[in-house]
Design a protein that fits this description.
Blueprint lengths: L1 E2 L11 H7 L25 H9 L5 E11 L9 E2 L24 E11 L3 E7 L4 E7 L2 E6 L4 E6 L15 H10 L5 E11 L2 E10 L6 E9 L5 E8 L7 E9 L17 E4 L7 H15 L2 E4 L6 E5 L2 H4 L2 E2 L3 H12 L3 E5 L2 E7 L4 E5 L3 E5 L3 H10 L4
Parallel strand pairs: 8-14
Antiparallel strand pairs: 1-9, 2-4, 2-13, 3-17, 4-5, 5-6, 6-7, 7-8, 9-10, 10-11, 11-12, 12-13, 15-16, 16-21, 18-19, 19-20, 20-21
Length: 389
């Protein structure tokens, strides 16, 4: 079954892979969580009806474990160097700042534990071998805690305001929401059979681009047959091989989580960083947005659909790695980044293209950044067409 689906709202299609890559704006081998014992026999459903089922899903309470595996093919940086935040998030906190955690999901396999009880109570934990990072949203209180460093981050906000929970952006629900919002006439959508995910019967929804210049081969979403909750989200690159991103529930329950799941008190001796009071008044929130815009530069979208490219002016410092406290280390890090990819020239001047399996990024010598899930030629053409603007 296939269908053309008109967009419910205009969203930027590259947002999912770029966000996960951590090189622009929010994105694996298909594992064993989908049971091999046989696909469930479910009633037929059209692509339109399945998308409507996801859009109409109103699951308020749930808990479970999610395995997130990324294989984007990002270049490796030496220890102490990282893309983007350099250990400090947008709020200026320490290692427990939630905005700093998204980059940790860029590569490898991670286990997330999720719990939610309505719009005011959520908890997300990244479980590692020797430590656990947790983000707790309870009413107007937001806490983040890193057991490995015994550091905590705290902020207050208006009720129902976005908690800024960067790790949860890698959950199947959030990834599927972004992808489905971007479906338009550049997309082919079909229901591609059924599956078992975390013991639940699910339909498999397949989204494929019609535009040749994209690096994305397909996006596949497993949708709970009963309540429409996305249970798995997989992005496969056009070049083949292992998928670039896979987020899948390995356990899930739709019962009400324990109230204690959303309680938190910093352990004795923990270093607590206080974030900005984002919910104190609307004026301060708007000022925070203006400050963020000034820090990361102006941005705009070039093109349409799967071949959309984001242009960021003056964002070169945000993309380049931050290393240590000394200027010498930062200089070495920038030299290392300059050695990646290939040198390109055009009407925009000169620059360097850094490529991954899913996202290509052009850093121009005048400080502009062009990024998208598109091939190198399309990226350079986008920069050429906007030279001097």
């Amino acid at each position: 079954m296939s269908a053309r689906i008109q967009p419910s709202r205009r969203a930027v299609r590259y947002a999912v892979p770029v966000a996960i890559a951590g090189v622009a704006a929010a994105t694996i081998g298909i594992g064993s969580a989908i049971a091999k014992s046989g696909d469930p026999d479910l009633p037929k459903i059209s692509a339109q009806d399945l998308i409507a089922k996801v859009a109409g899903s109103d699951v308020q309470r749930m808990s479970g474990s999610v395995r997130v595996t990324s294989d984007l093919g990002l270049p490796s940086l030496p220890a102490g160097m990282s893309f983007g935040t350099g250990g400090k998030g947008a709020h200026g906190g320490g290692s427990a700042d939630p905005q700093a955690k998204l980059t940790e999901l860029v590569s490898g396999t991670h286990t997330l534990r999720l719990a939610a009880d309505g719009p005011d109570k959520q908890r997300v934990s990244i479980v590692e071998r020797a430590a656990e990072y947790s983000l707790i949203h309870n009413g107007d209180q937001v806490w983040a805690y890193d057991s490995g460093t015994n550091t905590a981050y705290h902020s207050t906000q208006a009720r129902h305001q976005d908690a800024g929970n960067a790790p949860a952006a890698a959950s199947p629900q959030e990834l599927a929401k972004k992808a489905l919002a971007a479906v338009d006439d550049t997309t082919s959508v079909s229901v591609d059979g059924t599956a078992k995910v975390a013991g639940r019967d699910a339909y498999r929804l397949t989204i494929k681009p019609k535009q040749d210049a994209t690096t994305i081969g397909a996006v596949r979403i497993a949708v709970d047959a009963k309540n429409g909750t996305p249970l798995r989200f997989t992005v496969s690159p056009k070049g083949g091989g292992k998928a670039a991103l896979d987020a899948v529930f390995t356990k899930i329950s739709f019962n009400k989580p324990s109230a204690s799941s959303f309680d938190f008190t910093p352990p004795k001796g923990a270093k607590v960083t206080e974030g900005k009071n984002e919910g104190k008044n609307e004026g301060k929130a708007k000022q925070h947005q203006r400050d963020a815009k000034g820090q990361h530069g102006d941005s705009r979208v070039i093109g349409k659909g799967w071949t959309s490219v984001m242009e960021l002016k003056g964002a070169d410092k945000g993309i380049r790695p931050q290393a240590g406290k000394g200027g010498k280390d930062a200089s070495r890090a920038n030299q290392l980044l300059d050695s990646f990819g290939s040198k390109v020239n055009g009407s925009f001047g000169s620059g360097r293209v850094i490529s991954t399996r899913l996202v290509n990024v052009l850093l121009t010598d005048d400080g502009r950044v062009y990024a998208g899930a598109v091939d190198k030629d399309t990226l350079v053409k986008a920069a050429d067409g906007n030279a001097g603007r």
